[in-house]
Write a structure and sequence with these properties.
Helix 5 packs across helix 7 and helix 8 packs across helix 10. This protein has eleven helices and three strands; from the N terminus they run ααβαββαααααααα. The relative contact order is 0.14. By secondary structure, the protein is mainly α. The radius of gyration is 18 Å and the shape is elongated. A three-stranded mixed β-sheet has the order 1-3-2. Strand 2 and strand 3 form a beta hairpin.
Length: 210
């Protein structure tokens, strides 16, 4: 199977993410309503599948969800769908990332069920899978935690927790990472309704974590 993903820079992926938000959620109110956008703007059906993640792991793939080759469905592990909201939201944004970034690649694929999808993934060299997965992850992070409002929300979070930040800085030139997570990353994760890891990566990529 010919599957040669085009490498995009972070700036290009951010531009795609901003275009997505400008078109489908221009108000940038948070948390970004990714599920509603997918169902309303794209008429994509979200299908929870019991044990999807476990099935993927049997062939050594760490996959939570996949978007259909025709972009009409997103299948997602039912446990994540039911119980891990932040992971569910990220998985949806990740799959939409594939549609926006790799649509031309998906046009080469033909699969109608989970087994056919896993078989296609197994045909791909690992480095190619890594490229498309990293790109979709970056798109998802930039859609759910937009660059345009991250710095502002960080500033608001610091103000909201000003007393705690000041007390933490006493006798310390630099706060431990664990303290930063407690004081900034965790509150931001609640505001954006994403995991702390997603917020940490976004702050780091935008040079804000320090």
């Amino acid at each position: 199977m010919e599957f040669d993903p085009t490498s995009k820079t972070s700036d290009q992926i951010n531009s795609d993410a901003e275009s997505f938000l400008t078109t489908y959620h221009p108000s940038l109110t948070i948390p970004i309503p990714i599920e509603n956008i997918i169902e309303s703007a794209f008429n994509i059906d979200i299908i929870p599948i019991p044990g999807l993640k476990d099935v993927a792991q049997t062939v050594e793939l760490n996959i939570d969800a996949f978007i259909g080759a025709d972009f009409k469905t997103i299948s997602i592990d039912k446990y994540i769908y039911d119980r891990i909201e932040t992971r569910y939201r990220f998985s949806l944004a990740h799959e939409i990332g594939h549609m926006f970034l790799h649509g031309y690649l998906y046009n080469q694929l033909r699969f109608n069920n989970t087994d056919e999808w896993l078989a296609l993934l197994n045909e791909m060299p690992k480095y190619q899978r890594d490229i498309v997965e990293c790109q979709a992850n970056e798109f998802a992070g930039m859609v759910l935690v937009p660059r345009k409002i991250l710095a502002k929300e960080l500033e608001n979070t610091i103000k909201e927790n000003e007393a705690r930040f000041k007390s933490s800085f006493i006798h310390k030139e630099k706060l431990p990472r664990s303290t930063v997570i407690d004081l900034a990353v965790y509150p931001l994760s609640l505001k954006f309704n994403v995991s702390e890891n997603v917020v940490s990566i976004r702050l780091d990529r935008d040079g804000l974590l320090h």
